[in-house]
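User: I'm curious what two different proteins look like when written out as structure tokens. Can you demonstrate?

Assistant: Sure. I'll show them one after the other, since each token string lines up with its own sequence. Here's the first protein:
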Amino acid sequence: MLEKMDTKFDPEEVIEEFDMLTNDTERVQKETLQKLLEKNDSTEYLKKWGFNERTDNESFEAFVPLVSHKDLEPCIHRMVDGDTSPIFTGKPIATISLSSGTTQGKPKFVTFNNELMETTMQIYKTFFTIRNRSVSMLENMDTKFDLEKIIKEFEMLTKDAERVQKETLQKILEENGSTGYLKKWDLNGRTDHESFKGFVPLFTNKDLEPYIQRMVDGDTSPIFTGKPITTISLSSGTTQEKSKFVLFNNELMESTMQICKTFFAFRNRVQKENLQKILEENGSTEYLKKWGLNGRIDHESIKAFVPLVTHKDLEPYIQRMVDGDTSPILTGKPITTISLSSGTTQGKPKFVPFNNELIEFTMQIYKTFFAFRNRLCSSVYYKRIFSSY
């Protein structure tokens, strides 16, 4: 169906609309909010907060509090139980879906009316269009930014990580020395890392929540940053079973984009090299022969010949290995270990076959993770920097 999706919508038109909307997000968000309030001003939920048919965003900010899905569950369960009154939306609920349950350990009911279904489909269209454009542009990504230049810059910075971290900390302190948070710890304009170590204690996101909440509530004074906060986002809530507010100013947005560029630059190069290595080692397997690769080891051929699959598609092959078949089915090297997954994604454990190389690779991932964690947090002041993110 994805291959034929261009007959349903024009990818370039979708991208143009997305670019137009995201170039003026404040106006679009205000207009969207006003439209939502006009359509749903008679609902029980808005009436509860004394909204009284107001449709301006200032009133919405003043009267309607920030809530989580948990706060809305009693109202949602009424709809699940068949209540058709206008609780949240003026238009009737047409579909009730279940989330995957990954964020809080249990699935949640998600309600849709027809208009929300259309909006959701538009989001998917936009996602697939942008993704397909990004993937097709990987070969020509140097027209947007120089992959090798980004990789060289990253390697240069990581070769002298201690110096870079000290300079970064000094720059942060110089730009934010007048903020309420740093003044609280009597830094008094000091911008050296020794003073930071001596005066500013270790903290977690929880310690900062009162300050963050003030900014969410509209406090524009320099609490954390000398530059104004332009965007407030919500985390997925996977680490502490609840979403957290994440604050951005323009400089942090640029840094985040630079991280993304670096990630894509490395990913593009490393994925091609890894894919070629995998094809070289496993080109003679039953699975690859099935798709007519015939010894090809370039990524263009695997895209053209080998379809996307899920674990379920591979289960017949895996079951043969579980039952003792030692022929080269999926890997050229023999399977030495078969593990069971935790079963969280589909409600039942899955067999995961390993050969020795894959076991070593998995161990290398763990080693790399711990090595980086220990290097980045090897001293007190590094911990202070990174524990806040």
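Here's a second, unrelated protein for contrast:
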Amino acid sequence: MSLQLSGSRPRQLQYSASGLRRDLRLLEVDDALLGDIAAGGVVVKGGPGDDAVLCTGDRTYALKYVETTNTLLMLPPDAAGDADFGAVGSATQAPDASLLRDVGLQTQIQKASTAGANPPLVATATAVAHIEAVHCPPRLGQLRELLAACRPYGIEDEGAEAAQGGDCSGSDAMAVDGLDGLAQPGLGGGGAAGFTTAQLEQLVQASRSELLRELEALNALRLAGRWRLVDEDYLGRLLEVLLLSATEAGWPLEAVPLDDAAVALAADGYAPALVAHCLGVYGDRTDSRDSSGGSASGAFECDAAPAPPPGTTFSLDCDRVCLHFARKLLRSRPGSAPAPGAWLRSEFMAAWSEAVPEEWAPPNERLLAGEALEDLPEGSLPGADTYVLPFAARDLPLEPAPRFAALFARRPRWERSQLEPYLVALTISGGQKVEALLLKYARGSQGTPDAPLFFSAR
């Protein structure tokens, strides 16, 4: 609403006879956010110890309290502006021409006389600050903590899904209560096997779209309407049994039939829902109804995603499958020198090539970016074989400052090409560019103008 006040038509300002309200809060928003608010698609989230955020359907905004030294007076929505009093203003006698030539007290008297002819503006509320809504990364660390509090799906759960209906569909229409208890560590085994989408939306400071994308990135499983993680070793063994079955049955890795795979793996105790989940994690559906891949993608638009139709096939992704075997090898040497998980590079590449399916050997070394680091053995000569050590980006904090602290604790100086794979998650979740992150959290230096640029802690 605009009062359309003009300098040539002054109005009197009065305080409400009932006093000024001080319980209203002003929120500064842009046009896009205003449209979301008007459509009723926003919610404010935050617990007792959290800074509040405002979430739309696909974005998260930090709410910042900004104080001002100016007095802010608010008028009710039905306050009439100058446009409503054009007739009244025109009835006011025009000031004498001689008065207009003299600036000062006579002009102020004339203005007061003009203002008295119009109805006054009545202020009914005041504020000493306003709230700014600033786009920010979703706080997805809360999601990791919640899912970590639930025991991951593993071998002890085989057969349990049959008692729950045997599929991944379910309803989130249940009442969300007792959330404080659900968020306590240790739950998930036996009784509370995960969280519904509605519960996660209440507990995690992120929009629905951001929440579901992170569930997909975590390879979370939605079973009987509840989300939980799957034990990485269990899912990896399932993949390897699936690859062996594909070889024995003659299924091409670019078109693995879901129905046949579910029947073949049932003999090994794997539920059809887990077989479909595994194929979604390490591959993509080849039919046009779902080309997005991933385990959570089917639940993006609706909570109860339909089961894949008969005849569905999946194309296993070379990079995802090869990355599984790389991670398995890096976990297989817990006590190796010079650090846990360390391999001589030549030995690692040979073992990795042997582990992956024959048609995908040798695997592409670029897959190790953000998964492992290469270091020279202490005292080695230039050109010596390097060590490959596990250092995964997915295990680092999701907030920029803690992530950079962890990176520089692991290695004091980084080349940009080595550092960038560990910043990808920050650019996706926060929408920030790598250059902006490096400028804020790191310091660049060069020994000589033609030397590579290194980054260290600021």
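A detail about the second structure: The longest strand covers residues 60-74.
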